[in-house]
Amino acid sequence: MSQASTVGLQDLWHAALSALAERVGQATCDSFLRRAVPLQYDGQVFVLGVASQFAKNWLEQRHLPAIGTCLTELLEEPVQVQMQVVESTDQSPHPPALAGSTAAAAPSDEGDFSSTPLNPKYAFENFVVADCNRFAHAAAQQVAKSPGKSYNPLFIHSKVGLGKTHLLQAIGHMVIDQHPASRVVYISAEDFVNRLITAIRDNRTAAFRRKYRHVDVWLVDDIQFIAAIEGPASEEEFFHTFNTLCETNKQVVIASDAPPRHLQIMNDRLRSRLEMGIVADLRCPDVETRVAILEKKAEAEGVDLSREILEYVAQRIESNIRVLEGALLKICAYASLTDEELTMPAVQDIVADYSTATTQHRVTVDQIIEHVAAQMDCDTADMRGPKRTQEIVWPRQIAIYLARELTDETLASVGKSFSGRDHSTVLHAYNKVSELLTTDESVLWLINDMKNVLQAD
Ligand code: ADP
Ligand code: MG
C-alpha cells in the first residue's frame, strides 16, 4: 500500500496513539500526541503535524523512535516519521488543509500563569546577615533597589535550607513595595515546566510566552530542575524567556543548588549566560549566626528562650537553617503547652531528633576511595591510577561522585586524588553516576548505602 487515504490516516494514527500511550507515558501523550495530526503517509515517510516548534523539538528529541516503532508494527513495514509544525492542530476532518489555515487567536487568559504568591515571612527584615551570606544579601538588595540596572542575572546558589528562597522572595517584596506597578513573578523551575506543558497541551504557548517574557522581575527558584525533569526542550524555552528578559533589561534572579558550571544543563550558551551577571553563594552560618537566627525566630514566635537553650540548639544543628528552625518551632510549641519553665533535658530530647539526622560528618576523599574499594572489591591504587578497564572505571566513577557529594573539594582537587585527572573527567564521572541514579534503582541503593556508612563514621 502506498498512498493512505485521509480516513485511513486518521484510523492509523488513532491505533498508534493507544499503543504509544504505553510507551511514552500518558503525560506526553496527552500533552502533545493527542493534539498532533497525521498529515501524510507515502508508504515510507509518515508526516505528523504538531502545534509548535517546541512540541516538534520535544517529540523529535525524545519520542521519534517510539512513534516510528509503533507505526512500523501497525503497518508491518518500516516507517520513518517526520514532524511538521502546523498553525493549529485542532481536530479537523481535512488535516492536510491545516497548514494553510489560520487558527483563531487563543484567548489571552493570563490568570492561569500567575506566579506563586510570596511568603510574607521571607522579607529582608527577617534575614540575619552574617559573613556566610553577606555578599548574596548585598547583591539581592542592590537588585531589589534597581531591578534590571545592576547585576543581571543574579545567580544565588547554596545547599538546601540556607536561605535562597528567602532571599529571592525578599527581592520580590522589596520591588513590590517600592514599585507597586511592576510585574514580579516568583516561580520554581519545576512549576515553570509544568505550566509550560499545560500551555502547550492547551495550545496556548503564545499566551504563556507573552506572560513570562513581559515581566519586570523574574525570580526563578530551584533552577536545577529545569534540566532534571524534562530535558532539553524545557531548557530551551527557559533559555528564550531568560534571554528576552535580560536583553530588555528586565531583572532575572535565579536560585540553584549548584553553581552554573555544575548544573546539569545541555545548553552551553545558557550556562555561560547564567554566569554573565553575578554569582553569589550562601554558606553554612557559624554558631554565632545560628544563635542570632534562632533569637530572631523565637522573637517572631513570641517565645522567650534562654541564651543557654539557644546556644545548645545552635551547637547541635550545624548544617541547615530550615532544620534549625524546625527544632526551634518544636521547642516553642512545647513551651506553650506546658506552664512550667523549659528544662534543658526537655530541650535536649527535642533536639536529639534533629541533630543526628542532620549534622553530617566531614568525610575525606581518601576515606571515600578506601570505602568504595573495600565495598567493590578493588584496589585503591588502581582506583587512583590510570587503568581504564571497566572493572575499575565504574568504582572510580562512584568514588568521584561521592567525593563531590560528601566533601567540599573542588572538581580540580577531587581530580588530584585520582592521579591529577582534569575537572572535565571528574564532572563526566559525576554526571554519569547522577544520571544512573535516576534510571537504575540498584545504583540508587548502592550509593545510598555508601553515603550512610561514610557519614556515620
Ligand atoms: P533554601 O531555599 O536555600 O533551601 P530557604 O530560603 O527555604 O532555604 O530557608 C530555609 C529557612 O531558613 C527559611 O525559613 C528561612 O527563612 C530561614 N533562613 C535562611 N537563612 C536565613 C537568615 N540568614 N536569616 C533568617 N532566616 C533564614
Ligand atoms: Mg528553596
Question: Can you walk me through this structure?
Answer:
About 5% of the residues have low confidence. Helix 1 runs antiparallel to helix 2 and helix 7 packs across helix 9. The termini are far apart. Strands 5-6-7-4-8 form a five-stranded parallel sheet, with helices on both faces. The protein folds into four domains: 80 residues, GMP Synthetase, Chain A, domain 3; 180 residues, P-loop containing nucleotide triphosphate hydrolases (Rossmann fold), CATH 3.40.50; 64 residues, Helicase, Ruva Protein, domain 3 (Orthogonal Bundle); 91 residues, DnaA protein, C-terminal DNA-binding domain (Chromosomal Replication Initiator Protein Dnaa, Chain: A), CATH 1.10.1750.10. The protein has 21 helices and eight strands. With 457 residues, the chain is α/β, with parallel strands linked by helices. A hairpin with a 3-residue loop joins strand 1 and strand 2. Bound molecules: adenosine-5'-diphosphate (ADP) and magnesium ion. The site of magnesium ion has 3 residues, from helix 6.
